[in-house]
């Protein structure tokens, strides 16, 4: 177990990571919920996508990125990735003594929202095959039908910044159509990249379908944990970005998705 210097400083930053740029959808929610926090973001672009990797490979990456963020002084970690949470959140909590906030597809609110009794989940194959997802269905999915689509290729579209390209729309249609055909009236965005495709997904699903993502719940959970530990920062703000990938290319995509120009630094060699 790696212990933090005690006491943890209220003014310390919050560390957030994802396989790439998808976690920016969570970063935006955290920024809106906690305007005073300093936020550190790692995009593991060299290793994206995580979806098809083994749980062991994902765990190694999650440990390396968290170690980097802890060395930057993080007081809490947000795993802004459903796939990495499923593979690594237990290991992270064993290795590090700071609060680790993970995320999972929002099946619970979807089960409450559905009227047709059919919930659709869009996610990576890694998330859908995980024991955590099976447990989630066991717990919340008993009284409804949950239909899933493993969305190969969608993460890559977002990584390239192609949010409304014809090829992206064709992929979205391929994954949304079977969910609708099976009667889903509620669709869960079970991957943090997909909120960036929300407009396309809404257009393909139609206005009758409810779309649910997890970013808001994660940022509220972070706020609760920091408040419990008396670690909420009072003033300040600011975001800092790192990537394991090609800096100029990642900087362009992050600036586009973030909605303002940002500087991205390269992760040090030992964290790649
Ligand atoms: N953003 C990650 C998630 O929430 C995804 C993916 C990937 O790299 O496959 O699952």
Write structural notes for this entry.
With 272 residues, the protein is α/β, with parallel strands linked by helices. It has 2 domains: 14-103 and 216-271, Rossmann fold (3-Layer(aba) Sandwich); 107-213, Rossmann fold (3-Layer(aba) Sandwich), CATH 3.40.50. The chain contains 11 helices and 10 strands. The strands form 2 sheets. A 6-stranded parallel β-sheet has the order 4-3-1-2-9-10, sandwiched between helices. The protein has a 4-stranded parallel β-sheet with strand order 6-5-7-8, sandwiched between helices. β9 (239-243), α11 (247-258) and β10 form a beta-alpha-beta unit. It is globular and about 50 Å long. The protein binds D-glutamic acid (DGL). D-glutamic acid binds at residues 18-19, 22, 48-51, 81-83, 124, 127, 155, 191-193. D-glutamic acid is lined by residues 18-19, 22, 48-51, 81-83, 124, 127, 155, 191-193.
Write the layout of secondary structure elements.
Layout: E1 14-18, H1 24-33, E2 39-43, H2 55-71, E3 76-79, H3 82-95, E4 100-101, H4 107-113, E5 118-123, H5 125-129, H6 131-140, E6 145-150, H7 154-159, H8 166-181, E7 186-189, H9 198-205, E8 210-212, H10 215-228, E9 239-243, H11 247-258, E10 264-266
Parallel strand pairs: 1-2, 1-3, 2-9, 3-4, 5-6, 5-7, 7-8, 9-10
Helix pairs in contact: 1-10, 2-3, 8-9
Bound molecules: D-glutamic acid.
């Amino acid at each position: 177990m790696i212990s933090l210097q005690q006491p943890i400083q209220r003014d310390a930053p919050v560390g957030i990571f994802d396989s790439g740029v998808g976690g920016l959808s969570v970063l935006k929610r955290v920024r809106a919920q906690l305007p005073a926090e300093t936020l550190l973001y790692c995009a593991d672009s060299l290793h994206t996508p995580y979806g098809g990797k083994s749980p062991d490979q994902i765990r190694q990456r999650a440990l390396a990125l968290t170690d980097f963020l802890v060395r930057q002084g993080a007081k809490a970690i947000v795993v802004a990735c459903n796939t990495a949470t499923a593979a690594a959140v237990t290991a992270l909590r064993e290795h590090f003594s700071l609060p680790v906030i993970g995320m999972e597809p929002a099946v619970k609110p979807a089960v409450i929202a559905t009227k047709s009794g059919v919930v659709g989940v869009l996610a990576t194959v890694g998330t859908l095959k995980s024991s955590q997802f099976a447990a989630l269905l066991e717990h919340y999915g008993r009284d409804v039908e949950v239909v899933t689509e493993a969305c190969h290729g969608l993460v890559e579209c977002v990584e390239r910044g192609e949010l409304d390209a014809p090829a992206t729309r064709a992929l979205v249609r391929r994954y949304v159509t079977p969910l609708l055909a099976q009667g889903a009236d509620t669709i869960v965005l079970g991957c943090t990249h997909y909120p960036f495709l929300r407009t396309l997904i809404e257009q393909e699903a139609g206005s009758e379908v409810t779309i649910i993502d997890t970013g808001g719940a994660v940022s509220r959970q972070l706020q609760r944990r920091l408040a419990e530990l008396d670690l909420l920062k009072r003033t300040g703000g600011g975001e800092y970005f790192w990537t394991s990938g090609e800096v100029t290319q990642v900087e362009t995509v992050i600036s586009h998705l973030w909605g303002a120009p940002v500087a991205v630094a390269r992760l040090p060699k030992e964290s790649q």
